[in-house]
Amino acid sequence: MRLTRTGTSDQLWVIERPFKTYGDVLKYLRHEFDPVSWEKRSLGGLVENYSYSYRRLQEPLRDTTLVAGEIYLTLFTFFLVHLGHRFTLLLLKRNPDVFEEAAERYVLLAERHAEAWARTGIRVFVSHDDIAMKNGPMVSPELFEEHVAPFYPRIWRPLRERGVKIIFVSDGRYMSLLDALVAAGVTGFKINWDAMLSKGDVEWLVERYGGRYVLSLGPRYRVMAYGSLRDAEKEAKWFLETVKDVKGFFLSNVAGRPENVKAFWRIWMRECWLE
């Protein structure tokens, strides 16, 4: 399978998949895998590219908001894209030593991109890694903590040394991995709509992490997608009451039926103005 990449792309996209079977994957990772060679730009070239992107977005906004740097293929997502979901998960289950050897090579490349971003003057960095699906993490918390999470501090080191805040984002329901991510250096999380949060989930996140870490999440998707207008209005009032005193909270992922989304925002904006 071959995936295209433009010459100016800032994503570390896969070039090709030169394997068919799991045995081929092991042989490839042990003897041929060389992700550093795929990045033709020097550190200076990356700094120039990222600095231009950052200035072009941040300068017009001035103090209105902070524009963040970003790596989409931080670590785990890179292997999902390059090897495929099935081979990546088999690798972590059957041959975690081979995964770690491959991750050691990839980290050299991811760290270069993090270093480039760190030199642009950003204050916030979004690190994307899809580590879960709607029913939970793709690997057990034990496997994640032992074989995946230890690589994050090395990737984020250039950013943390300059005081840049790390916001982690993943699709799916990854709450059981939050503590491991905090230990690795994360200062905040974005929880996407497909985590299918319950009322208890939202309250647990606010109680456990609110005020100490950045939290970015939105109303319950089931209510917004399948509830009535009245349900959406009640959701807005409940959600605002739950998070209104939480420092570092950002509302995101207000998704669902258009009429429910409008109703939610109408109540939200009115109540926020009154506050």
Give structural notes.
- With 275 residues, the chain is α/β, with parallel strands linked by helices.
- The chain contains 12 helices and 8 strands.
- It has helices at residues 22-31, 43-61, 76-83, 85-94, 96-118, 141-148, 152-161, 178-184, 199-209, 221-226, 229-243, 258-274; strands at residues 69-71, 124-128, 132-133, 136-137, 165-170, 188-191, 214-217, 249-251.
- The strands form 2 sheets. A 6-stranded parallel beta sheet has the order 1-2-5-6-7-8. The protein has a two-stranded antiparallel sheet with strand order 3-4.
- Helix 3 packs across helix 4.
- The longest helix has 23 residues, at 96-118.
Flag low-confidence runs. none
Order of helices and strands: HHEHHHEEEHHEHEHEHHEH
Radius of gyration: 20 Å
Helix content: 40-55%
> What fraction of the residues are assigned to beta strands by DSSP?
5-15%
> Would you tell me the overall average pLDDT?
92
- Total count of helical runs of at least 4 residues: 12
- How many strand elements? 8
